[in-house]
Write a structure and sequence with these properties.
The complex is a heterodimer of chains A (272) and B (507). Chain A is α/β, with parallel strands linked by helices. Chain A is 39% helix and 23% strand. In chain A, a hairpin with a 2-residue loop joins strand 1 and strand 2. In chain A, helix 3 packs parallel to helix 5. The longest helix of chain A is centred in the middle third of the chain and has 18 residues. Chain A is globular, with a radius of gyration of 19 Å. Chain B has 507 residues and is of the alpha/beta class. Chain B has three domains: 152 residues, Periplasmic binding protein-like II (D-Maltodextrin-Binding Protein, domain 2), CATH 3.40.190; 92 residues, Osmoprotection protein (prox), domain 2 (D-Maltodextrin-Binding Protein, domain 2, 3-Layer(aba) Sandwich), CATH 3.40.190.120; 213 residues, MetI-like (MetI-like fold), CATH 1.10.3720.10. Chain B is built from 23 helices and ten strands. In chain B, helix 2 links the parallel strand 1 and strand 2. The radius of gyration of chain B is 28 Å and the shape is elongated. Classes of the chains: A alpha/beta (272), B alpha/beta (507). The interface between A and B is medium-sized, with 31 and 34 residues.
Chain lengths: 272, 507
């Protein structure tokens, strides 16, 4: 059970998340759905203790998340982000085994676990000795998934794991992912802005808007009994677009954003 | 990890490997102008004549630095001038007579010889022929010729003991007074564009240009009688040395000094040889002067220079990287660190050496001479900024997705730093180290200011003697070494920067 009690967050004067309470039970797949800036990623980061909430508490399997237990708890949660977040200076294999190396697992144990995971994620072992820069986007996400699964955590938190992929690869990985989660019986929280992805994965969908929880329930409930006109508008807006279009991650960008605007950001991030 | 430990281990060994240190019984100092070096060589020969081992730290930075070194026992004796003692060393104490000066210095444990025979003060100089033609012998004679043109250095135009008071003292009527570079003034005087300039009374150029020094008949210029300053404990440590050195008293008149100076500056013989010639002619002391070939000199200088570089750069790396890490992790503290290492960079090298020397001496380390810890410490401080700053920038510039991923995986702070953050910042840190190393090779020439040798030595000697070949003998190897260091780091990059990052940079 992962419980968020009255957690809220603001950045400067901007509210990222209004006080929100959620109870997520083990063994189910939840999807946090909403447009950019609705607070869904913030919610996920608060749940993992990466972002400290301004108010409220997080309880993981009965334990309140605190600085002294957060590292321990994170080992029981796998986390995958949109760009993979693979460390560029380590091979795929080292990325996957990093935490096990730190925990001093034996080499045999590590090798066996990596074998299992590469079978599970359908990533040929030969690719594991490459560096992230030598892998395709889809391969990188599979490695990131292996890394998150290394310690066999009960929970998986995924922040737009398919957001940066081409439509074809995306659909393959989507099927593989839900297969893996079902077979391993993981508790999953997945963040997306894509209605189809939400429908594909979610036992329960939690729709957020401007830092506020709008409605939680199955896709059918959201369609049949919308709690707010926004729910219907959100669903209809995405249904009106053909699948190939809305799987493009630029979909929810404000129209005035031109590609050029992303240039300075890239410069800032560059590691000299 | 093992590789990192290996790198650090090798660096530490390199940094603290012993020097081929030269320790000598008696240490003589001199300042960085020809006359001081020649006198230092004379004192050195007189020491050696007693059979006691001695060494000459030549061309030390300036009066403050040399006198500090004497007070701290880093040197035992050096040549000085009475005017400098009253104006700079004992300034504010108003010592008038030689006897008062002797007492004041004795309080500091310093002994002073009687004048050694010449007065190196300011003097007015004219072409000998022109002076004879006008019948000018003394400064007061100038008042009869109001149309003469004067050319003075800007320093002389502004000093208290310079032109403004000289003009009042002698009531001089001349209006044509120009500010001129000293070296240019000699040429102007020769070709007749000016009639009078100021000169140092034992300047070698007086001989070269055949100048007449005008007698200071109303005693305007302060006296700069050359004397020897020595540590008083030398009287008990090596009385025979004192006795031998004091043979200089009343031995060197102005004419002899001018001639020795011009042997060096005009005939281009070494200071040691000029000093040996003089002592052989006057006291009949025979001494051997070893002349070294250019390549031998370059080899020795290279060894000294590399000593300075390795002993300062490596500790700087080991100190600056942790400082950079702290600066990146504790932003408020970090501003302080970056501020301090930045300010250090702005301190002029001579000032930094003078500040550091008492501290180094207090710690019981050798503050001047070969292997000088003062020079090494100054270089170390100068090397911090690029490394601290690049470490800081490298760590702060890590893309948030990597920091977040490292956190999410559950690594504790130390492991995040060692396994993720430092490798990602490695290219930036390395380029900081590279910058520091190249700058260090250049800065290490400052070692010459306190006798630590290196490529700076031929450079300051070359500047002093206006000898371009000698300047190049230091400057060219220094430039070559800087290029080699740069190339070395470019090769080393393959070893230090993780392969995955190099792939990423190329893709």
């Amino acid at each position: 059970m992962l419980e968020l009690c009255n957690v809220s967050k603001r950045y400067g004067g901007v509210v990222a998340l209004e006080p929100t309470t959620l109870q997520l039970s083990s063994g189910r797949t939840y999807v946090l759905l909403g447009t950019s800036g609705c607070g869904k990623s913030t919610l996920l980061k608060i749940a993992l203790g990466l972002t400290e909430p301004d108010s409220g508490t997080v309880r993981f399997e009965g334990q309140t998340l605190q600085p002294d237990n957060v590292l321990q708890i994170r080992k029981r949660i796998g986390y995958v982000i949109q760009s993979g977040g693979l460390f560029p200076h380590l091979t795929a294999r080292k990325n996957v085994s990093l935490i096990a190396d730190f925990l001093n697992w034996s080499t045999t144990k590590i090798r066996n676990r990596i074998e299992e995971l590469s079978a599970l994620t359908q990533l040929p072992e030969s690719t594991l000795d490459r560096y992230p820069a030598q892998l395709s986007g889809g391969q990188q996400q599979r490695v990131a998934l292996m890394r998150a699964l290394m310690l066999d955590p009960d929970w998986m938190l995924l922040d737009e794991p398919l957001g940066a992929l081409d439509p074809m690869i995306r659909s393959d990985l989507q099927n593989d992912l839900s297969g893996i989660f079902r077979s391993l019986q993981k508790s999953v929280v997945l963040v997306t802005h894509d209605l189809h992805e939400a429908a594909h994965f979610g036992d329960e969908i939690i729709l957020l808007r401007e830092g506020r929880l709008v409605q939680a329930g199955t896709m059918q409930e959201l369609i049949d009994h919308p709690s707010d006109p926004f729910v219907t508008r959100f669903i209809q807006a995405q249904q009106g677009i053909s699948p190939s279009d809305h799987s493009n991650s630029n979909f929810d960008r404000p129209e005035f954003t031109r590609p050029d605007d992303s240039q300075p950001e890239r410069g800032e991030r560059g590691v000299q | 990890m093992i590789r990192t430990i290996a790198i650090v281990g090798v660096l530490v060994l390199l940094a603290f490997a012993p020097l081929s240190m030269r320790s000598a019984g008696i240490r003589i100092g001199s300042k960085k102008f020809t006359e001081s070096v020649v006198l230092g060589e004379m004192i050195n020969i007189l020491c050696a004549d007693t059979g006691i081992d001695s060494v000459h730290y030549r061309e030390l930075g300036g009066t403050q630095l040399v006198y500090q070194a004497l007070l701290q026992g880093e040197i035992d004796a050096y040549p000085e001038y009475t005017g400098t003692i009253t104006e700079e060393i004992l300034s504010g104490r108003k010592v008038g007579s030689l006897e008062e000066m002797r007492l004041a210095l004795a309080e500091q444990g310093v002994g002073v010889s009687k004048p050694i025979g010449f007065n190196n003060t300011y003097a007015l100089a004219m072409n000998r022929a022109r002076a004879r033609e006008l019948g000018i012998e003394r400064v007061s004679d100038l008042s009869r010729y109001p149309d003469l043109a004067f050319g003075f250095s800007s320093e002389f135009l502004n000093r208290e003991d310079g032109w403004p008071n000289l003009r009042k003292h002698y009531d001089l009527p001349q209006q044509r007074v120009a500010g001129l570079d000293h070296d240019i003034a000699y040429r102007q005087l020769k070709n007749g564009s000016i009639d009078v300039m100021e000169a140092y009374s034992t300047d070698a150029k007086i001989d070269v240009y055949d100048l007449k020094l005008l007698e200071d008949d109303r005693a305007f210029f302060p006296r700069y009688d050359a004397v020897v300053l020595y540590r008083q404990n030398l009287k008990t440590r090596a009385p025979e040395v004192i006795e031998s050195i004091l043979r200089l008293e009343n031995l060197v008149n102005a004419e002899a000094m001018i001639s020795s100076n011009s042997r060096v500056e005009v005939d281009r013989i070494s200071e040691g040889r000029a000093a040996a010639e003089f002592l052989e002619n006057t006291l009949g002391i025979e001494s051997e002067v070893a002349d070294t070939s250019r390549w031998q000199r370059i080899a020795t200088r290279t060894g000294e220079h590399l000593d300075l570089v390795r002993r300062s750069l490596i500790p700087a790396i080991l100190l600056a990287i942790p400082l950079g890490i702290v600066a990146a992790k504790r932003p408020r503290f970090g501003q302080g660190i970056l501020g301090i290492v930045g300010v250090v960079q702005t301190i002029p090298s001579l000032a930094l050496l003078v500040i550091l020397m008492p501290l180094v001496a207090w710690l019981g380390l050798n503050s001047i001479g070969l292997g000088s810890t003062t020079a090494v410490t100054a270089l170390l401080l100068y090397s911090l900024l690029p490394i601290v700053r690049n470490t800081h920038t490298g760590l702060r510039g890590i893309s948030p997705e990597y920091s977040e991923a490292a956190l999410a995986i559950g690594l504790p702070p130390w492991d995040r730093l060692v396994r993720i953050e430092l490798p990602l910042a490695a290219p930036s840190i390395l380029s900081g180290v590279k910058t520091a190393a190249v700058l260090n090779v250049g800065f290490a020439t400052l070692g010459a200011l306190i006798g630590a040798g290196g490529y700076g030595q031929p450079i300051i000697t070359g500047i002093r003697l206006n000898d371009t070949a000698l300047i190049l003998e230091g400057a060219v190897p220094a430039a070559v070494l800087a290029l080699l260091v740069q190339a070395g780091f470019d090769l080393g990059e393959k070893w230090v920067v993780p392969r995955g990052l190099r792939l990423q940079a190329n893709s």
